[in-house]
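look at this one:
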Amino acid sequence: MPQKVSKSGGANKSRTSAEKSTEMRRVNFTTPTAMVTLVVGSSDNPVKFTLHKDFACHYSPVFHAAFNGNFIEGQTQTYHLEDAQDKVVTLLVQWIYTRRIVTTDNYTDYENLITLWILADKLCMPALQNAIIDRLFKTKPKPDCRMAIIGSLEKIYNETAGGCQLQKFAVDVCATYLKPDDIRETLQLFPAEFLIDYASRFYRPHILVPWEFDASDYHVSTEDKSKSSSAKRTVE
């Protein structure tokens, strides 16, 4: 669980460190004519996104391995995201090119950001995961943001590894804004693993609640992008 940090101290230091690890390595745009395709959805009615291979491979080691390997993705320069949604992949491509996340403040967009975090985890893109957390953290006091997080708990706990940063963030948001009666009256909506994490969150005899927490408390490491929490869950 996140440790108490000063609003002016550790958070900025962590964020600067994460930025350096990505900003110092600019896209090596040496093959501007090389393009790859992301195929989203089922084979019956797919949506295709075409983007520069250099950009895709720079930000995702999964894409890099796929498009430069000897398997079907490398031969066809096509990567299938069958379980993804086109709106979510639009945000993915948008971030790859601009390093920005542009959404409105409504329930659906917040829900899409949570789904994008999970997709970014599968694609080993920690910088994008952290950008999503920063966006959600700033807007967490808004009712639509909080409700999207609560409404996505089952997805979060089913599709990520136990103890991942997104789970920690969701638990802390719920612990901050939900009243005990809110959980008691809708108990069936909360995954069992979440309830355990929620209870554990309050067992901190050495810290008084409420305590301060910062977006950087829920960042994932950008040093090793070869393993995702979802991949670990699959292996386990």
Observations:
- The chain has 13 helices and three strands.
- The longest strand covers residues 35-40.
